[in-house]
Protein 1
Amino acid sequence: MHHSKNHLKPAFCLALSLAAGSSLGAPVNYEMNLTTTSGLGAGGTMNTLGMLFGAKDRSGSSATRSMELRLTNPADIPEGYQATHSVPAAMRIGPQLPLTGQRHSRGGERGETKESQPEGRVLIYWGCATTIPKGQPEIIDFKALAARMPPEVMAMTRQSRASGHPASGAPASLPPRTLGWPWGDDNFRGIPGEASAVGEHAVTASFMPQEIRYTLDANLDFLEPMGLATSAGNTRATIPLTWQALARARGYDLHAVGSNSEKEMVIWLAAKGKSPMLPGRQHECTIAEGVFAKSPMAMVAAQAFGPLQGFAYPPQKPGEKKPLIWTAKVRINAYDNLMVGMQDAAAGAARESAKDSAVDAVVPAGVGGVLKGLFGH
């Protein structure tokens, strides 16, 4: 009898380990984001405010492809773990990508400083129109900006926040529950322009009792570039915007940022109270005359929302509520942006210097500190 108990002990420990790993039935969650970026932000995940606060275009305006992977375990991930994502040969990278995480500690946000609260206001316009509609702009004082900012404006930073991760210098006090890629992969050199995600994907981890496996078809491949364009040479009149009609786009978000002075910023949204702002069938929009008339330049950014697909195991029939072991979600998006008025403001300057000057003109000194604090950068 004693001999049998010794044999049962390892099995009992394994069962406890698996139960802890699944956090009493909570599934492992996996995310894959496939992004096509073009315009000034080509080369990585683009976000208007993120670009304005330090990102420079060093790769021209050609489109680039990127992929972000994120695995979230319901329980602490043990020391010495191993986790990989195997991609199909058509991705032209890998074939195994390391999923890594960093130890981090819980901590409060940094306190606001006087520099992050200058006096001033932001003017918010919205809608595709040639003239400014009645009732606009909505005016918000900088001191009340965080509390009153419309959700559409806060959504501008959702993408960059989703890709954030703890700083490498953070104290090692908590084991991570989230692993990801490409951060932590010192061998990663970018995804080729001809790469395709079509095929079978498999995620394995030493702490997961079962691998995550799903297959992507052509509908879930990278989107084509948006091709955002305008015929406007300056910000004084209407700014007509056009982009490619992407067959797989579910909808589009467009927004623009400029500044009238050191203490007055202007934000324009293609629509207010909608997500996405514009339907997938629409591929043109006009910023009304007068919105950026006092701004020397304006940064316009666009996002195309492509297919969204979820996977889960075990598969669920309608009405079933089986305990899930894992879930996976695949998002396909595209980003593009352009600067209106840059040629006038940067005439005679080198291309890189022109872009730096344009960024400084769009967000005045002092205002950048406020927005960095509000948007997490």
Note: The first helix runs from residue 2 to 21.
Protein 2
Amino acid sequence: MNTEDRIYQESLKVATLYYYHGLTTEAIAREMKFSRPKVSRLLSHARATGMVEIKIVDIEKALSPLEKQIRERFHLAAVHVVPAPELMGEVVWLERVARFTANYLNSILTGGETLAIAWGTTVSEIASNLVPHRIENLRIVQLNGSGNTFTPDNRYAASILQHFARNYQANVMLFPVPSFFDYPETKEAMWRERSIRQIIELQEKAEVLLYSIGSVSAGVPSHVYSTGYLDPTDLEELEREKVIGDLATVFFREDGSWEDIPLNHRASGPGLSLYRQAKRAICVVSGRNKVRGLRAALEARFMTELIVDEPTARLLCRD
């Protein structure tokens, strides 16, 4: 038996004794003639590789006061406020939100569905925290293109999508177009291509959308604003148009309007009406500087479900 198989078998046995039979780590160590640190490492390996799935069941289905306030105020199907100490800072808030989301996805995704994903800083962090879980016939599709003049390939977005695909053993459809076209006419021509239409139709039929809100001034910078996707002229235009955020690189104002923003005519992301029509549109947000954009997106009904850290949720409700 090679090393990998041995670790698998040992982890499986340790996990079975611990979770099914209720033995302590000390009792398992005696029974298997291992040290207690080795038992702990094997249990950690079992959880990290998806051999063990931990599910928390709220038997009373009770929302916290903060969750209830947000759900009722913005008419959402579900709200998940993730505990995070305010003093720990926004990097830790994001890590906790991403870890919660990664585990939550395992509990809601089902076979035969299509998951549409908008790449970015938040979704990249979620990808890093995914727990292996095979889902039969799951399809994953990229919501917006990711090429730009500084990085003309698709590696950043592709790595995120591929991580999701490997984790769920799913089929993935990448969207090999620029984030922003130079000319609206180029986008219009590209959108008539059958190969592109196929991807757009898959986006439109997706049962689950997963995305965040981009913000130019976020504490943990949004990728599209910090890595050369927008030139100074574009940023001046966004300021002139009073843009406060974006969903999959489609920009919106505080009143939720987006159709007449010129840059959106060159953007590869879907129109924001998609989020209103989706069966399940899950927006994952972390960070105080995203609150204005989040509030606008909530008022405009650009989501059905919100996952947010507690300090950001409190700021959202403070008015």
Note: The CA atoms of residues 124 and 204 lie 22 Å apart.
Protein 3
Amino acid sequence: MSESEEVKSPNWNSSVKMLVALTGIVLLGVLLARFHSFIPSIVLAGIVAFLVVPIVRTLHVRFKLPWGLAANACFLILVLLLITASTVTGFAVVQQLQALFLTLQNFLLDLPDIFESISQQTYVLGPWELDFSQFDLAPLAEQLLATVQPVFGQLSTLLASLATGAVEWVVRLIFVLAVSYFLTVDYNRIRAAVINISIPGFTEDFRRLRVALLAIWNAFLRGQLLIVLSTGFLTWIVFTVLGVRFSIGLGFLGGLAKFVPIVGPTTAGAIGALVALFQPGNWFGLTPLGHALLVVASIILLDQSIDYLLVPRIMGTSLNLHPVIILIGLLIGASLAGILGLLLAAPFMATLLLLGRYTYRKIVDLDPWDPPIDDLGKKPKRESRIVKYLQRFRDRLEKT
């Protein structure tokens, strides 16, 4: 063989491939176990970059700015917004949340006495008479107190650290912004590397999986952001109109709760009802119980209106998961990644279902694209003006 002839690299046999794959999996597991504390910050940085990239793309395409200059401008504005929000409204939100959780903690401490007082009374509702003296409610109160109080203690500690400007949180924020900045600057290179991944015979499958996964995460990260902002603002308006204390904190809590399907809105509504039940008075002249029931009815109406009017039109059907699947995902996410796992449980479950359906159909020799994945996320034809505006805003962010 002459020196000018090209020498072809020999292929690995099955044993070598298996050994290399297992070694890579073990090394990845060791790295994840060693640096697991950084994973939430890296995931959060990826989410920030994912949200900022459409804005950078708009500046790059419409205003002909270089990609790096557009990224620098966006992150400069983002930092200024974070500083402004933390100084203007951030402290007010943190103070109201602290006062809110302190009120709830005091309520939990008084819960055994409240249950004891209920157990000693008889209530008459029309033809029915409810005698609670036959029930021992003390164990129930103690169990509820032991379950819920540690959660409020952790939240109060978290809010205290935020209010005092703990160095650890500042460092984490700087780390998240730095990683998201570099991901945004190198977005085109990263995107090209992902698109160029080619598995012989599965190029089309990989493309369609990528399209479906982008539909899921676009719907959650960008669509859910609009839902959360809308819910927080509307919840603040409702609590303010109803004369409930801590309306700013409850609105902030209600918006964040929308990230956690089913459980989040229910918990936020229950907290608002408890505040209304035990606050000194209200400007409607209602009894505390009547005021609390009015709050519950208003929050249920608001949540159902958002779920049926805004969510399907903004987020499409990419995250149309059964409630049982959502609850299972919440339990798994909370046990694996805490608060971040709760927030990302829905898109992760949708991703697992998508990959599971593809794997199952390939195993049993069925068409993996029946029904076609490209149809995911189709929007209804009839939309109100507000929904159209929100939809155009989201589409503008996602436009490539």
Note: Confidence is low (pLDDT under 50) at residues 373-383.
